[in-house]
Every structure is written in C-alpha cells, then in structure tokens.
Amino acid sequence: MSKSDHPQSSSRRAALKTLGAAGAAATLPLWARYTHAQTAAPIRIGFQKHATGIGAAYGRWYDRTSQAAVAKINGEGGINGRMIELVTEDDGTDPKRGAEVIEKFANQSKCDIAFGTLFSHVVIDSAPRAGELKLPYFVVSEGHHVASGMLNRWTLQPGITDVKSQVQAMAPFITDTLGKKVTMIYPDYGFGYDHRDNLVPAVQAAGGEIVAQIAIPPTETSFTKYFPQIPRETEVIYHVMVGPAVLTFVKEMGEFFGPSRPEIFGFIDSLEAVDLASPGLDFLEGTYFWEGMPRYLQADAPAYVTAYRDAVGIDANGASTSDQKDVSTAAHMFGCWETLHIIKAGMEAAGYSSTADRQALVEAVEAMTEMPAGAAHPQGDKLFNGRTHQVFGPQYISKVESGKLNVTHVAPIEDTLYPDEVDYTTQSF
Fold it and tell me: How far apart are CA 196 and CA 202, in angstroms?
C-alpha cells in the first residue's frame, strides 16, 4: 500500500477537508458552532473500559485520556454542535463481558457508537456482536485482528498502529544493531500470537532467525521457570509481556542473567505503567524498547505534544502530575485521544445526526487517508487505509539511558506498510 493506492474521491476529499477544518471550528463563537445542530441531545459514546482484570492499568489511563479528549472537543463546540457524553462500562478485561457490554451500549444505553477496547481477546469476542447490532466499534487495540480481515465492516482501528506494522519496522533495527539470533518471550493469547506470527518472517527478512519462542500465560505471577528455556546461542531476547506481574517478569529476568545478559529488545508493554526507577530494574540500562509514543518528554517535542501531555495530566517522566507513582501507559493511550478526534471528523464529514447515520459515519472514516501530526494527532503523521480499517504511523525505538527512555530511532510510515489482507469496503453493512 502506498499513498498512490488511495485515489481521492470527492467523499474522501470531503473527509480530509473536515480533518483540517476541525481545529478551525474552535475559533468560531459559541453561537456559530451550534447553529447547524439538529438536536441538543449529546452524542453518546460507549466507552468499553478495562476497569478491572489484567488490563486495569491501561483502562485507568485510557479513561483519563478519553476524558481529556472529550473535554477538549466539547470545549471547541463538540461534534456538529452537540456535546459528547462518555457512557462507561467495565468489561473486566473479559471477552464474554466485553460482548455483553457491547449489547448494553446498543440496546440499553442507546449509544451512538462503541469505543476504546485494548486487549485483543476482548475485541475479538466483542466485534461480532457489534457487527450484528450494526454498532460502529472503534477499537484502540493495536492487534492485527482488524487489518487481518478477522472482524467486520463495523469495526475500525484508525487511531493506533497494529502489531504487524510495528514488528515489521523493528526487525531490521534488531538484526542490524543487536544480533541475528533472537529468542522471543510473549503472552500466550491473541496479542502475543500477533507478535509470534509476524516477528518470525520479519526477522528472517532482515537476515536473522528466531531460535526459540516462549509463550507465557498472561496471568502468570512468577517467571523464573521459563528463563532456562532460552538457548545459549541467543544473542537478543525480544520480550513483550502484559498484565499486573510485568514488573516481576522484568526483575526476575534481570536476576536470572545478572551482568552477563544478552542484548535485550522489549516492547514497552512489558513495562507500561511501571516506573523505570523501580528497584531491580537497573539491569535494563542500555537495553532498547519499542514505544508507540514516547513516555518521557523528548527535548525536541513540538508544542502540540506538550499540549496533549498537559491536557492528559502527565509530567516530563510520563507520570501523573498529581501522583508521581502513578505511571502512565503513554505508548498506547494516545490512541484514545486520536480516535476520538477521528470520530469527530468522521461524524462531521457524514453530517451525523442520529443512529440512522451510523453507516454514513463508517463510510466517511473509510474515505480518510492522510492525518497530519498536530493537536488531533500528537503521536505523529498517520496514513489510514480505508480498505483494511487500519492506520499506519511512525514507530519509536528508545534506549534506557540513566534510568530514562530516550528516543534513538524513529521508523517512518513507509517502513510499516504491508499488502492488504482484506477489503472491508466490499462487504455489505
């Protein structure tokens, strides 16, 4: 896929124009912003929150980021002159409950759309119900399940990149900089399988090989029994773990290897919401991490990045401005901010006024392509593929230096692209 693969239809041009016009609307007086509103009723967005379960840390910060984005959008006049109201339900990071929450959004809470889900097993079980209910479902998951064609036309991932694109961009750095023989450690469920299935060909294409694959249950609480499975020939350990025991995982890995460790490349999922200054993490000095968006404020950060961080309430170290011990999930939560701005742009392009316009909303988002970096897209420039319902964007590689993550390489969008695996636009609604 390239930019030339996306012919600019009139509807697509209209959607792109809306993206640029969204910020301009904020300069209008309040009365002018509301003149085209057909109703004073709020737009109800069902927020599927991982308030409990293994995704609770993400759920907490997804909520804060979403609330901040809603406050910004409402302060600028809302969507088509209507305010946004988040309707929050806890899915327990549980697939069965996730589908039940989708049902509740559509049939009880009378939500216009559903939004917010991260953990892939919850998305995979929730999306079919959203499709049956014809409820637009905007996920912030990064799993490859959307772009793979596993889901349906009502499910979109326009605000965060997927694992396949991330891994593809990381593999050449790993093999060129760290080593060719890689052992991967990953969670034993859908998100981990995305890494397993996509890292192997990506590393092979970059001239390396995967010498071992170690799957660990995401609910595991101790990891020492897994580390002896790492072959002696390993030059690089590639790790991506999730859940409440991630700090234990990283600390036990350090205790196992001591000073004679191989090179280490991790996805920041293994340390999301964890303070790098935590005791036992000293061994991470000099190791590398993928980040979706840098946790630490970089010296060259543009003004729109600092504005986003201020709005969400995180300090220069990526912790809550009200509690330094409350470390954010910065590498993922930006996707909520960006997705809500995309929903706004899509609804305005579609002239959305009621649930009868849900199909028009999906079609308007499918028409989008370029999403320039700025207040609505602080993570960076994006390219949306309406056929696969997946967005592509830059990827950040950071090195642990003096106990902080400093960006050392930014993989451009071009490094993340891959051939389409589905064309949702050919599917009926």
Answer: 10
